[in-house]
Amino acid sequence: MFLVLFLITADYDQLVTDYEIGHQLFLQENYIDAAEYFNAMLGKYSGSAFENEIRFRLAECYFNLNDFFGAKKYFEKILKDKKDVYLEPECLYAIGLIDILQSNYKEAEEILQTLLKHPAYQQEERANFALGVLHYFRGSYEEAREKLEGNQLLESKFYYAKTLSRLGKPLQAISVFKEIIDTSPNTPIAILAEFSRAEALFFNKDFDGAKLTFNEFILNFPKSPLNDYAHFFLAAALVHAKEYAQASEHLLPLTRHSDNLLAAHSSYFLGICRMKLGDGLGSVSSFQRVRANYPNTQIASYANLQLTNALLTAGDTVQALVSASQLATMFASGELSSVGEYLTGMIYFQKDDFFNAANSFALIPQRYPNSALREPAAAMHLYALNRLKQYGHTITFGSRYIVDFPDEKSPWRGRTLYFLGEAYYYQDNFAEAEKNFLRVTRDYFGIEVTPYARIGTAYAVYNQDRSKEAHTLFTSMSQTIFDDSSLVIATYLGVGYTLYNLADYMGALDTFELLYNTYPKDERCAVPALFYAGMCYSKLQYYGQAIESWERLLGNYPLASKSAEASFRAGDTYFKALEYEKARALFRWTVENHPLDDFARSSQLAIGQSYYNEQNFDDAIREFQKFIDLFPTSEEATSARKSMAMCYYRKGLESIDDMKLFVEKFPQDELAADGQYQVAYDYFEKEQFVEAIDEFLKVVVNFPQSSYAPDALLLAAECATTTEDWDKAADLYQRYLSYFPDGKQRETVYFNLGTAFYNQKEYGQALTYFKVVTDSFPTSAHAASAHHNIGICEQLLGETGPGYSPAPVPEETPADTVPGREQ
To answer: Is residue 735 exposed (0-12), middle (13-18) or buried (19+ Cβ within 10 Å)?
Structure first.
């Protein structure tokens, strides 16, 4: 019997040792070796009571190796055995996750519903997490949100944020992703959250935001396996922004990626970019690559469709460019020289390939300075550069060209001057813009750009703060009938702007309302007209009508950039009327709909301020913190932190615990000295003198320049005196004299020092300080008592008989406790 027990014990000890080795391999994420080890153990301990435990760990290894078939087989074997009931819910949970990952959603739901029948798992976070993920992958995002919301598992928060993104709430999603990143920095899930943060912006069509965040991800996580996918999404955002050349640079390396789906999509979008850039043959090559190499992907169908367009584009463009090239070769000199280059430029220009168009047009003045096409090419070159918004290049080339060829008198010179003036205008050089526009209207009147030059002149004058002169120009133009509605709109907007700047708000209002009523569906007109109508109403103090005009703008054109300012100003109007709830609704609209606009920052800050004004400090703190989270590097972040500190301070005035929290969170705040002083004084009033000493000393040490420091040190000394800790009291009084040599309480401190040393029987020291009082402060209220005590100390130092120990006059003056007392 004893031999059997010994053998059982020996086997058990060996099993524990073996299991620990496998467990350590698992913890080190060496799942391959761990799986081999647990597999060997399974054979070695087959039939033992621990067989299913080992089988469970083996299944976990396979799960982490993405061998879901093997993992599921072992989890199901454990369930089938029905021997280890405690493992059953864990196996169900794992099988449910595997079914989700394998898109077996129906089976997953059945498994998870079975799991939830276990009482311990009905409110278990992991079970609800799995159900939430199931709903997410099914596309049932509201159900997913219901299951995931409030779940504290990091993985659950991650899918909750992805769910919010799919529900069109990118800002809320980003906030949750940020929480994950802050909670677990530099972990795999944090890197996933960084990627998904950018993805949320992309899927919610905030392509500008997506470009910024994907670019940050690429720079910050160059070794992440998600880096290539970030390049793809960045390229897709660039395609949406019509930045095809830049997009191509990101896509080209991905076309040979080992992930076939990524390679296929990259090749497809590279074809799109090449087609938009006029590279017909290149686009044909890209689409053919998708069709040939990835025929079973869905994107191959789209590639087949685009291939037709690419071939048509390539056919037309190639033939046109070949023809132009032939002309350039045939007429290298003579009257028809430069025709080939000019036609090439026009082909590119008509295809909106302004970069190549500009390059083609630029060749003509260089190679053919005497060509009749030199001036048209120069004008078209400036036009193409302006379309590229390369206004600096326009100015550099245009100003030099006019100097090099000053005698040109053809109508094309008027166009050259116009495009040069336009470049100056958009570079905010309004004086030079005005000069060029005036030359067009004076010397080339009648060409098609003349009315645009006139309107350009008026706006150039207006932007030089010459509103009265500009108003005359705009009014003159308003008498002309234009076929182009853009000229009509620009003219009457100019009339309204100048009247507004001249403080004729009623006249401006009539103009803006007329414009809106005439072109209510034209965003170019309706947006500024509604906005400035609201501004006019506000200046006229018709605040209700101002808000109505701004809210109409939000309703009709919510995505217009001016809507952000309109929403803010409407909210600010309510704010000033103390109607904070209405103000907050508009401020939140700005933040949610225009998160990247400057007025989003102002709006978020105003939300916090509105709660502060209502003395709703908890909500104010939340909103100021939200501002810091959303705009951590903005100039207003410092103001938000100060406002948040003030909220904590105001709460601290009602609760000493909140005051402690204020001092802890904002030790550098200008009110922190006052807060620390109040914390200390609370202990003093409660007669918790030992604690009070420590807190008063914090005032002195942390805020030595504050007006509270001298009083705090005196009160600390008084606490020591009250507890008869004479050594501590003497030290603190001496520290006061050292720190504050000009302090107003010096005479009292010298007297109290004498008393402290007397009570320590340091009569010589006591005598010294009492003499300071009588010698340096002869008119002090303590002088008489000090003189009396001097006599007693002298007697005690040698002139008294044995047993004689009279006490000095007990005149210890407590420190003045009025806050902020001057030293």
So the answer is: middle
Write the DSSP string, 738-777.
Answer: HH-TT-TTHHHHHHHHHHHHHHTT-HHHHHHHHHHHHHH-
> Residue 3 burial by CB count (10 A; 0-12/13-18/19+): exposed, middle or buried?
exposed
pLDDT score, position 119:
64
CA–chain centroid gap for 717, Å, is 49
Q: Cα–Cα distance between 531 and 554 in angstroms, integer?
A: 10
Q: How far apart are CA 550 and CA 528, in angstroms?
A: 10
Question: Which tens digit of pLDDT belongs to each residue from 101-156?
Answer: 777 777 777 776 776 666 656 556 666 676 777 677 778 888 878 777 887 777 77
Which are the contacts of 537, defined by CB distance < 8 A and separation ≥ 6?
Answer: 509, 543, 545, 546, 549
* Contact in structure between 547 and 576 (CB atoms under 8 Å): no
Amino acid at 262: L
Q: pLDDT-derived band of residue 805, with 50, 70 and 90 as boundaries?
A: very low
Tokens of residue 237, six digits: 């955002």
What is the C-alpha end-to-end distance of the chain, expressed in Å?
A: 90
Question: Which ranges in 204-297 belong to alpha helices (H)?
Answer: 207-220, 227-240, 244-251, 260-276, 280-293
Res 490: pLDDT: 92
Q: Is 325 exposed, middle or buried (0-12, 13-18, 19+ CB in 10 A)?
A: middle
3-state secondary structure 512-541: HHHHHHHCCCCHHHHHHHHHHHHHHHHHCC
Alpha-carbon gap, residue 719 to 174, rounded angstroms = 52
Type of residue numbered 596: L
For residue 749, which of 774, 764, 732 has the smallest C-alpha distance?
732
Give dist(CA 380, CA 412) in Å, integer. Answer: 9
The tokens describing 37, both together, are: 């080890």
Q: What are 35-60's pLDDT values in tens digits?
A: 888 888 877 777 777 777 888 888 88
- Does residue 90 come out as left (phi exceeding 0), alpha (psi in the -120 to 50 range) or beta? alpha
Report d(CA 57, CA 36) in Å as an integer.
11
Distance (Å, whole) CA 641 – CA 470: 44
Contact 371, 348 (CB under 8 A): no
557: tokens are 């054109």
Could you tell me if residue 435 is left (phi over 0), alpha (psi between -120 and 50 degrees) or otherwise beta?
A: alpha
Q: Is 809 left (phi over 0), alpha (psi -120 to 50) or beta?
A: beta
SS3 771: helix
Please, how many CA atoms are within 13 Å of residue 647, restricted to the half-sphere of its CB? Answer: 25
CB 239 within 8 A of CB 269: yes
- Residue that is written with structure tokens 């009082």 in the block: 773
Q: Please count the other Cβ atoms lying within 10 Å of the Cβ belonging to residue 487.
A: 17
Q: What pLDDT digit, counting tens, does each position of 589-608 carry?
A: 999 999 989 999 999 999 99
Using DSSP's 3-state secondary structure scheme, residue 201 falls into helix
Residue 355: which of 323, 388, 330, 382 has the closest Cα? 388
Higher pLDDT, residue 409 or 397: 397
DSSP 396-408: HHHHHHHHHSTT-
Q: Choose from 481-485, 591-595, 627-631 the range with maximum mean pLDDT.
A: 591-595
pLDDT band at 469 (very low <50, low <70, confident <90, very high): very high
